[in-house]
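Deliverable D5.2: sample structural annotation.
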Amino acid sequence: MAIRISNKNPLDVNQRVAIGVSIPFSSPSIFTSTYFTTEQIKSNIINYILTNTGERVLNPNFGANIQKQLFEQITPSSLSTLEVTLRNSIQSNFPTVKVNKITLTPIYEENTVQLSIDYSYLNNTAETINITL
């Protein structure tokens, strides 16, 4: 009789096979392997946010392209535009990811924006990504 494992990706069953590499590249051997899809999705979203369109070889449409918006003045309207752009592009490029909340906190003294994305994958527990832009 077959047993169905609910809300678990089939790639996560064999824990000895790596799915991808983790970002940032900070281990002594340069690449740190990821063995679960939740870890790899987090790395993929970080990679997507930090990549501009046209930057990726053989996939010129990949990337959130938010660098052009970062060099504008930080205003509430520019932050709301950036939030809508991020939400739409993440949901269209990662259909299995549900974005729960995007928080953009401006730090005017440093002219930076703190990005926090709360998301869930396959209705599992929520994950959070924090990036300073």
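Annotation notes: The longest helix spans residues 76-93. The domain at 17-132 is CATH 3.10.450.40 (Nuclear Transport Factor 2; Chain: A,).
The annotation will be released with the project's public dataset once the embargo ends.
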